[in-house]
């Protein structure tokens, strides 16, 4: 059962790009990590005070797949066609693309636009708290708020967090990981049948896969990628998001600055005021 975490989107509260949305590109050969694009525009997480961008290290468990043809019995919703998402709650800010070993602690079930979207709660095994945590008594109010409301500024309805936001424990979460791993094996053994060919499963190490390629072909694919250039220009809306995230950070540390009544962008969605800190209290 995999417990190694590949980060596809690590967001730092001390940089000006912690609102960027990065994802594993399922369609492209060898599945590179890229900033997500929708309707031709780069995507950013909008700020809902007091949460500033991502509030944990956010990534995905490799060798897992939420099968869109399989429904979770309790909700009747099918998988979102992605790897399992992971919220890593340790102290260290991980670099994007880093691979770390994690201890699974529990899981939330998000119903995101009608799809099953499990959020595995985990901690870096090298974190000082890892040995002390066993998945019990996790205070996840900030995480619950974040997932419930983060799409509201885009004019979308609130997400549903099943079981009223209850975090299921480690044993239950590991069952979800194990099932997603089985679904992944189905995918890579015959990707055309499992996904209709919409997911690239090209790899160099899986002997039972219908999409295994030679290392030379993989190297050629990587070498054909253009060299990294300067960062793409950030549109005005994204600049406002980032600036507001930073100003909210300043406001939180200066009680003389009043909290704004609304979020950025003139959406009319009131700011979420919470007693919880950015991130989670785990003890």
TrEMBL record:
One of its GO terms (biological process) is phosphate-containing compound metabolic process. InterPro entries: Pyrophosphatase, Pyrophosphatase_sf. Its EC number is 3.6.1.1. Residues 198-232, 251-283 are annotated as: Disordered. The keyword Magnesium applies. Gene3D superfamilies: Inorganic pyrophosphatase (3.90.80.10). One of its GO terms (cellular component) is cytoplasm. It is an enzyme of class 3 (hydrolase). Its cofactor is Mg(2+). Keywords: Hydrolase, Magnesium, Metal-binding. GO terms for molecular function: inorganic diphosphate phosphatase activity; magnesium ion binding. Residues 198-211, 273-283 have a biased composition (Polar residues). PANTHER family: INORGANIC PYROPHOSPHATASE. Belongs to the PPase family. This is inorganic diphosphatase. It comes from Pomacea canaliculata (Golden apple snail).
